[in-house]
Design a protein that fits this description.
With about 325 residues, the protein is of the alpha+beta class. The protein has a five-stranded mixed sheet. Strands 4-5-7-6 form a four-stranded mixed sheet. β6 and β7 form a beta hairpin. The longest helix has 20 residues. The two termini are about 30 Å apart. About 35% of the residues are buried.
Length: about 325
């Protein structure tokens, strides 16, 4: 059977497919049962990443009975980054104050849920982006929470005012102090999980970089936008993610050349430059030392030419 998305038994039978055909397709490895009565083609399932597979399971569960998806399940449906969050279970919230229940592949959270805290998006009932971010911030690590919140803010899914209102609504719930701390650290000027994690490492070490600043030369010509900019001592620090340079060889080559050109323009204006990658995030002490060496070079150099400023970021591109 060749199809994309979920196939429910009821729809299959209505279209003339028999239970025997469904059973034989499973035995041949052509069909995978996501949930009882919910199937996906093996070929299509193999093309999905872990977040997409999770959302497929969440849709199957939501088809069984009306539920409000929440926490990381809602975050995935909204298109937020869910770096390092566990995805083995689909999360939903009942709206009733009960003890959380864990079943096979699902966790049901017992918590009050007002009408304004849930909405339908792409055919699924979800907690709102603000409620989703705060629920995650109450129940996961600081770093994971900030990455989720940064992505929600950057994508324009939520505003700081909405997050503050969601915090107030959750003021009596478990983990609220963790959520308050995490929300305070979130920003809409982070382009990726890698940038968010790099920022947290730098701030924890006592650095206070400016985020995503546009740099201009002395004549007012735009040189480029840099992830982290330091002033007095001066320096530009970049996070290089694996997805920064395109998805094929031609894209990669063009992106690498454009990136090198941008770096050269900024260096020529007098800015010392340094970079970090995903591998460096596992060694925060070494990353911070790299920044210190860059700033030491900046302290020995004349003040860079030109100006810099925090301009509106371009629309987010998934």
């Amino acid at each position: 059977m060749d199809f994309e998305g979920l196939l429910f038994r009821s729809d299959a039978l209505a279209s003339g497919v028999t239970d025997g055909q469904l059973r034989h397709a499973r035995l041949r490895g052509e069909l995978i049962a996501v949930r009882p009565g919910a199937f996906v083609s093996a070929a299509f399932f193999a093309t999905l990443n872990s977040e997409q597979q999770h959302l497929l399971l969440a849709r199957a569960i939501a088809h069984e009975a009306p539920v409000v998806l929440s926490h990381q399940s809602a975050a995935i449906a909204w298109g937020m980054d869910v770096w390092a969050l566990p995805l083995a279970y689909v999360h939903s919230t009942t709206g009733r104050t009960i003890t959380a229940r864990k079943g096979r592949r699902r966790i049901v959270h017992g918590s009050t849920l007002s009408e304004s805290e849930s909405t339908v998006f792409q055919g699924i009932l979800l907690t709102t982006p603000a409620r989703t971010v705060v629920d995650i911030a109450r129940s996961t690590t600081f770093e994971q929470s900030v990455c989720v919140g940064d992505s929600a803010l950057r994508r324009g899914l939520v505003t700081r005012t909405e997050l503050d209102e969601a915090l107030y609504s959750a003021r009596h719930r478990t983990g609220i102090q963790n959520a308050v701390r995490a929300v305070a650290a979130m920003t809409d000027r982070s382009d990726s999980v890698g940038e968010s994690r790099t920022r947290l490492i730098l701030v924890d070490a006592g650095f206070a970089p400016l985020l995503n600043q546009s740099v201009y030369d002395a004549g007012g010509t735009f040189l480029g936008r840099t992830d982290f900019l330091f002033t007095g001592p001066w320096g530009c620090f970049e996070f290089d993610g694996a997805d920064k340079y395109g998805v094929n060889a031609a894209d990669t080559r063009a992106s690498v050349l454009a990136e090198k050109d941008r770096e050269n323009r900024i260096r020529d204006a007098g800015w010392p430059f340094a970079r970090a990658s995903w591998r460096d995030l596992a060694q925060p002490d070494a990353l911070n030392e790299r920044v210190r060496r860059m700033l030491a070079r900046g302290a020995r150099m004349p003040e860079p030419e030109g100006t810099f400023r925090a301009e509106p970021l371009p629309p987010y591109r998934p």
